[in-house]
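hi!! sorry for the late reply, been swamped w classes. u asked for the two structures so here they r. pasted raw, havent cleaned anything up. first the sequence of the first protein and right below it the tokens
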Amino acid sequence: MTRWLIHCVAAAMLVAAAAVADQGSQPARTSREPAVEYWGGALIMNGIKVDFLARFERDDSTKPPSYSGTIDIPIQGLAGGKLSKISVSDSEIRFSFTSPGSPGEAVFVAKPMPDDPAVYAGEVTQFGESFPLRIRRATEEEAAGFGPPRPQTPRPPFPYEERQVEYVNPADGARLAGTLTVPPGDGPFPVVMLITGSGPQDRDETIMGHKPFAVLAHHLTSAGVAVLRSDDRGTGKSTGSMEVSSDVLAADVLAGIEMLKTQDKIDEERIGLIGHSEGGIIAPMVAAESPDVDFIVLLAAPAFPGRDIMIRQLADISRASGLKEEFIAKQTEAQAALFDLMEANAPEDEMRAAVRKLVILQSGFNPPAEVNLDREPPPLPPGIQHAIDTTVEQMMSPWFRNFAVQDPRATLARVRQPVLAINGELDLQVAAKANLEAIEKTLKDAGNHDVITLSMPGLNHLLQPARTGLMDEYYRIEITLDPRVIAEITRYVRQRAGLEP
């Protein structure tokens, strides 16, 4: 659901939360250093630690040596972000990074600490703001173990076959790449296709170091069910643009089903869909159109138009963050006004003014008292201005306009296949009670009584065991997918596939 939350300016900044990457002693620099250097550290942003790992590759053919490099920031789900302007010496380390889609270059500069020369201290500067920085060299082994533990992420060798597959959406020629995992044996095996949430995501639905689709695929395939998971269009090895409507995304899934029907050891009579978040909107769309779909599983799926979901989301997250009801009311009022303008196809300057007001409210930026936010733009920090520009561009995209008004209940009423819907009771992005009740009522009112809804206590939007449900917990929680959820999905799929009573 990364595209759903118009909630804070942090998306326009570099990073948002974590813990220091490296402790313990580090090797001294020598003249025989390897061509690849690793540097682990953290910056402090608004009182929050943010881990990162930088990888520098040194070219000794130049004098002085030149560098290329990348950066990993797990809290952002960033891996391999390209660095520039790298210089490393005994007296200073310096490099720059620009987030994709952001005009604001983040400049990292640090110098050895007098009392501990192995540790470099300095600051990161971006959008005119500076944040404290600590960084130190890391060994290759330490770099390999960088990031918080993710004990559920499956590691090879796997007790099943992995096939790298491709298929084409004939509507626009987008080529989708994925992994099909097939249980050992002769088959044919039932198969499920996993559908990611909103925003460009890879086949594992990687977020903040978690790989929920890899975890789910591993458990299902180990239980005798083949699984297809694919990179979203324009992501990983898939081509095509993500700036498309839900109808096109549904067509991607239909193309995947056609490919599955050609695969050896796959039973085309037992095909299911599992959709998470926005994927829980796409799955019913496909099921309503395709007789090949035998059942669907909806995980944290919305049952209301995007407008309603996002206004509720903003209020729930603000409330869980401890904001006052008066302030929450102002934010939701500004957001509703913004949706009104969008639905009325208002001119871009009116949209921009409404977005400005909302972003300023959410950022906590306090303009001069004499400034009327409804009529004139106050002087804004570059980070806030970038958030405004990004939000306007997003809200004017075909995907967003479609999402804001599309009512999933219209499609759910056409679904005739069995449905399992699971939501976490601490989900602040898709409220469990309201959405599960709407899913069940819509299906049953339309004559489909083969529906099971499960409201899982203590789970957040990613279906992790959580304390508050706030997104800043996603990174810190080591569990990727609660074992109770895995068990319920596995049991349901195996029953629907005829593998157990």
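now the second protein. again sequence first, tokens right under
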Amino acid sequence: MASLLYRLGRFSFRRRRLVLSLWLAALAAVVAGFSLAGSSLDDQFSIPGSQSQQALDRLRAVEPAAGGVSGQIVFTAPPGHKVTERRYAAAIQETLHDAAHAPQVGAVISPKKAGTVTRDGRTALAQVQYAVTGPDVRPGSVDALEASTRPASDAGLTVHAGGAVFGSHGVQIGATEVIGVVVALVVLVITFGSLLAAGMPLLTAIGGLAVSLSGLMLLAHVFTISSTAITLAVMLGLAVGIDYTLFILSRHRTQLARGTDVEESAARALGTAGSAVAFAGLTVVVALAGLSVVGIPFLTVMGLSGAVTVVVAVLAATTLLPALLGFAGSRLTPKPHSRAARREKSPRPAMGARWIRATTRRPLLTVLAGVAALVVVAIPARELQLALPDNGSAPQGSTQREAYDAVSRAFGPGFNGPLLILADTSNAKGGGKGAKAELSKAASDLKKLPGVAAVTPPQPTSSKTDSVLQLVPTTAPDAKGTEDLVHRVRDYADGVRARSGVSLAVTGTTAVNVDVSSKLSASLVPFAAVVVGLCLIILLIVFRSIVVPVKATAGFLLSVAASFGAVVAVFQWGWLSDLIGVTRTGPVVSFLPVILMAVLFGLAMDYEVFVVAGIHEEYAHGRDPREAIRRGAPGAFRVVTAAALIMIAVFAGFVTLDDAIVKPIAFALAFGVLVDAFVVRLTLVPAVLSLVGRAGWWLPKWLARILPAVDIEGRGLPALPETAEGHRPHEESRGR
């Protein structure tokens, strides 16, 4: 790999105009295609083949209007008044008339017909049924629904439109990325001491992100891609794009400071640090693609979207960056006698050397303290609750959040996510009379189940053999009580089918979300096993050691557990929630665990390689194990620190979003990188290797013979001629 990337780096440097032209052409093509075609994102989460999805598909087939997405209009009269007063009733009727004529609306059910007027008469709830599913709702249709509320609001009523039709918030891109980029620029300027050098990673990362993001928007016309997948891709594209170029550029600057020819330095930087970048990118791609083992289509697409972004970031770092280095030439060389030049020439940076000495002076104490701290942070993870967010998690002040809160106060939280029960009587015992009697009994029995607020009478569909009942829970759509109720209803349905032949299937948006969450929870352990297995195998091949992969895997699991604990403490318990703008505590998004494990796995392996590679090389050259750590680890300290701070800044920028899906994922990733880089890789890894000594590099001879040889350190590259100072520049820069 090192030799191939060495040649690629030299080619890109020499043919820099061609390489830059190809990147600009690719960018122009995808941007033009996106500009002409636009985007077509789908924020519906479902599992094909689940009971709820099968029933929903059947309902849409026999009663298209009933299978469409729904909306709500909530009317609240001023204190001391009722919505049934003549002027208010007339305004409500005008609003419902306008709503019924809004684009794509199939039907509007008035509060009087639905029986959704509170006992005190102050609040009324109207249901809006669309003739299309959520992804097919045009933005203008939602705007028209909001505009239809004007007659009621002009009459003095407080009116809010909400419901599932407001579930998609779209791709939120803007100020959050600016925050991450600004912080990244500051870190890069401090790291390199040069604006030109600091701009290289940003330019490369943003260029690669523009290509991948526009390409994904085009692919959304062919594949089902959600706005969350795009946001995740943006996070990853910025973070890894900057980090990967940082690693290569740091090696290039070090070599330039030590007298290496510019072209040779660019090629050699790609053959050494670029090999580690390619390896790190491969691990992230494999982990993200591994989301497909969960068996949930939207999660598979989410993982593949992130993987595409990472692949483009690696391509940009290994082709576009060397071309830009060619344009920059010797201007990236630190000025003689400058602080940057002294820092680059130092084989062991002072800060890194002091930190490594501190962690290895009493390695056992360091390991015990570090592990204990992570275990304490991870303790809340035992109470991790998963669900898909609803409008109760929408930004405060938004119309859907106001409608959700108004419905919860007036009618109860369950009215925000009623369950639909599709009854199939085609195999009913006793014919039509028996079916009718069984449905009446079912409606009566369901009302008596714990957690049920109301059940509507069976409503026949156009198929004549199917009927629909609506069941309102006493708990919110994302509450554990609602999930338990779904399972109780299904248990009851099994008994009904056995005694009468009538089939009852629980469906609707709430039931679909419950099934998605259950599937994700069940798949967490198998996915974790796949990721841990990959971690062991990859590091075993790279470092040809038993201890290194086991240590790295244990550290990764500690980082993940600590991140889960922090998420529970902030998003479920409410600790420091005001600081990051968490307006409602409760279950976190169901796919956070698998996304966190997939992304953090790749980043953890990235940092592991950069820290351990220098140690391994020093040990291979005959150093004592402790001396190898003290000479090999400090070189990676500055680069890993800068890379981790940039990652944290990018992810933390997305924590500011008012999005119940993106906010906890971004927080978990930022916290995970913080813990994994600074506690695990830069503290525990040197301490553990210091403890185990030579045993850290032991490998059975039979295993050594069958493992493939992988060179990510540049050992197979041709040696450099000695400089005037009598040393080979690249040899002193190894491990950095």
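hope this helps!! also noticed smth abt the second:
The radius of gyration is 30 Å.
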